Amino acid sequence: MEILVSGGTGFIGTALIPALCDAGHRVTVLTRQSRGGRDGLRFVQSLAQLREQPVEAVVNLAGASMAGARWSRRYKRELVSSRLDTTGALIAFMREREQPPHTLLSASAVGYYGHQGDHFLAEEAAPVPGFASDLCRGWEQVAAQAEDLGVRTCYLRLGVVLDAGGGALVDMARPFRLGIANWMGRGDQWLSWIHRDDVVAAILFLLDQPCLHGAFNLTAPVPVTGREFCEAMRRRFRTLPPMSVPGPVLKLALGEMAEELLLSGQRVVPSALREAGFEFCYPELDQALDAIYPSH
After folding, report:
1. Structural domain containing residue 74
2. What sequence ranges are listed for the domain NAD-dependent epimerase/dehydratase (predicted)?
3. Quick one: which of 274, 66, 92, 296 has its CA closest to 176?
4. Which residues, listed in sequence order, are joined to residue 243 by a DSSP beta bridge?
5. pLDDT band of 51, cuts 50, 70, 90
6. Rounded CA gap, 265 and 63, in Å?
């Protein structure tokens, strides 16, 4: 299959691209970085470079990190534009083609649901307002324009992606590596997580299932609270007794981002994926952390 990937040089993309190539797909990566390709893999800086190239499927992973900076007005605009503008450009690219791609897998996030306490949130759950929720809903609404072109569209509502060498776990693990065990605020907020290998496997699964469309929660079946995550990390690192990082301190340091990303969460379950027959390699956190920290 001829597959176009946007955001392919990020944390998920760097694992996805080799997996797509190993599966026999021909991959084009849309990126601002100039890179040399190889047989079956090409890097382009503009969609205009693809006018004569067939594209059968698009995987859209582009978007600035939600935890990349304090949510100033300027950074909020970057969060919005890096998602909506890039996705809009992909829709325009599809619309201009005589033969549009047959499939679009477009990233979203579990922030779509907003903060709903201890309620289990499957794909049909209604969202509640908030910056992250509004952003994800707007992102999906732009991607949904592909459906009007007859493109099978799947929305990948990603949880916190865990693996060695990058992503959120770098910051999450830092205090534990220094011997400090902590959780944010009360520690009862939910963390809907997923191992990066399962993200890659789920994307390959959805590409190969032409009957599947709509929203899919890319989260492990067993979400954990902040305190449970802390205890799981303490089983791998020698630390002082655990403690809380007070919510007011986080709000003072990080503002709105602390409230939305660190002190609140979503208890999300991957109902649609499991009903479709997808099997997780790492359904529970201890299994994922054993794979990430095999020597601990």
Report:
1. 2-292
2. 3-210
3. 296
4. 182
5. confident
6. 20
